[in-house]
Every structure is written in structure tokens, then in C-alpha cells.
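dumping this here so i dont lose it
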């Protein structure tokens, strides 16, 4: 019974995964795995400097196919914006101050 619940949760999660959606215009998971996101520029509350994605400690340990990880979420955003713009974007993770 517990295994069935876990399988259902995994299926629900994957249904929400943009790279597995077959949505027109969105690259597939296989296509996004070929995109080099290592030099993607990020901003964070934890540094005044820009951060290169490959410098993140977890970057090399995560796979795009691991739904819910930072790398998979960034890949979804890049897929939605368009991988051809990867050199033109900076992802800002800073919290807005009210």
C-alpha cells in the first residue's frame, strides 16, 4: 500500500515536469540534457557577485532528469525561455524587499 502511494506521488510529480510535458515549443528532456548550462549566470542573496552555475556545490551532483532539483528547475526555465538565449540571461534568485 505504501509503495503504491509512493508510485502515485512520483507519477504526479512527473506530470508537472515541463520537460516531460510534450508541450509544443518546449525542448524535451533529452534535448535539454544536451544544452550546456554550466556557464549560466545566477544572482543570489548570499553573494554580491554574480555566480556561475557550475560553481554551485550541488551542480555536478544533480541531473536534469531529477525532477524537483535546482538543476531541473533551472533547465525548465531555460527550456521555456529558449535555450538559444542562454548566453543572454541571468537568473535572479534574490528575494524582493517590500
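and the seq i came up w/
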Amino acid at each position: 500500500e505504501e509503495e503504491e502511494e509512493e508510485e502515485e506521488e512520483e507519477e504526479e510529480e512527473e506530470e508537472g515536469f515541463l520537460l516531460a510535458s510534450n508541450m509544443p515549443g518546449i525542448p524535451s528532456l533529452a534535448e535539454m540534457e544536451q544544452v550546456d548550462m554550466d556557464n549560466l549566470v545566477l544572482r543570489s542573496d548570499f553573494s554580491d557577485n554574480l555566480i556561475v552555475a557550475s560553481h554551485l556545490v550541488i551542480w555536478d551532483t544533480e541531473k536534469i532528469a531529477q525532477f524537483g532539483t535546482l538543476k531541473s528547475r533551472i533547465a525548465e526555465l531555460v527550456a521555456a525561455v529558449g535555450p538559444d538565449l542562454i548566453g543572454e540571461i541571468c537568473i535572479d534568485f534574490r528575494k524582493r524587499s517590500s
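The chain has one domain: 2-92.
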